Amino acid sequence: MAEVREALRLAAGRLAATSDTARLDAEVLMANALGVTRSDLLLRHMFDAEPTAFAALVERRLAHEPIAYITGSQEFYGLDLRVSPAVLIPRGDSETLIEAARAAFPGAGPARVLDLGTGSGALLLAALTLWPAAQGVGIDRSAEALAVARGNAAKLGLGERAELRQVDWTLPDWDAALGRFDLILANPPYIESDCALAPSVAAHEPHGALFAGLDGLDDYRRLIPHLPGLLTRQGVAVVEIGWTQAEAVGALAQTARLVSHLHRDLGNRPRALELRWL
Predict the structure, then answer these.
(1) Cα separation of 157 and 136, whole Å?
(2) 49-86 in b/e burial notation, b at 16+ Cβ within 10 A?
(3) Cα 153–154–156 angle (5° rounding)?
(4) Are 55 and 36 in contact (CB under 8 A)?
(5) Helices 54-62 + 4-15 axis angle, to 10
(6) 200: which residues sit within 8 A by CB, 6+ positions away?
(7) What does the CA dihedral 213, 243, 28, 24 come to, rounded to 10 degrees?
(8) Please, what are the averages of pLDDT over each run of 10 residues along the chain (278 residues)?
(9) What is the number of H-type helices and E-type strands within the chain?
(10) Where are the beta strands (DSSP E) in the chain?
């Protein structure tokens, strides 16, 4: 049986055909197989025998399965979140929404936070971690996604402050019993239905959390008209957008009597719109 260092070299060589981060992928998978952190792997385990579980993990990655689904975890805004194929993998770009919310509440934070389409709970739980006095509600139409979010809330000690409800915003009066919120966060589906995605996304992540009609705007058309009824008078909504959608989503917001302000991600791409009452 090969030593870990040799197994990593061979795996990285194979993964290079399908991944731009082949060596990193191999190290993360090896650490998972050994049950240690990547740092611990590199410092203490390079001369260990290759664990028997490693080969199967590499085969899954070669089939374009995302690393986060293979390991079952993903970091978001400093939080270690559990993920499964029932939820979209949280991306670093979505941290733009949390930074925009922080800027919107420089003093006392929001008292009530709503996360529309909570998935893993990433946005809601990041917000509740930032503002320890806040209470939050996360909605999702998927019972499987809500189970993941509840597990993350419990793991982070936020179960008492995060209420997770099964709500489908395509149904009439979906928001009738939610009340009003100081902060609303939303990362709705916004990809055009005919868009070609990388195999790791198209074949593995939930399509219901990705696609939103021919122009990618279907869920904004459903959600934005309801935002004035969900926001307190001084409330703020921050919604993620595709990098070409700022003008179209901003126009929908204006029709709903909301003013919008654009936030860019670390790559300087349009990433989120901050919406307030006119």
Answers:
(1) 13
(2) ebbeebeebbeebeeebbbbbbbeebebbebebbbbeb
(3) 65
(4) no
(5) 10
(6) 64, 65, 66
(7) 130
(8) 94 95 98 97 96 97 97 97 98 97 94 98 98 98 98 98 98 96 97 93 93 96 98 97 97 98 96 96
(9) 12, 9
(10) 73-76, 79-82, 112-116, 135-140, 162-166, 181-186, 231-240, 258-264, 270-277
Contacts of 190 (CB under 8 A, 6+ apart): 212, 216, 217, 219, 220, 240, 241, 242, 245
29 three-state secondary structure: helix
Rounded Cα–Cα distance for residues 13 and 6 (Å):
11
Name residue, tokens 């399509």.
207
Burial class (CB in 10 A: 0-12, 13-18, 19+), 18: middle
Residue 216 falls in which region: left (phi positive, over 0), alpha (psi -120 to 50) or beta = left
CA–CA distance, 27 with 40 (Å, rounded to integer): 11
Q: What is the β-pairing status of strands 231-240 and 181-186?
A: parallel
For 132, which DSSP code?
T
pTM for this structure? Answer: 0.95
Cα separation, 147 vs 157, in Å, equals: 15
Structure tokens at 267: 């790559």
Largest CA distance in the chain: 67
CA atoms within 13 A on the CB side of 137: 18
Of 230, 262, 229, 235, the C-alpha closest to 246 is 262
Helix, strand, or coil (residue 117)? coil
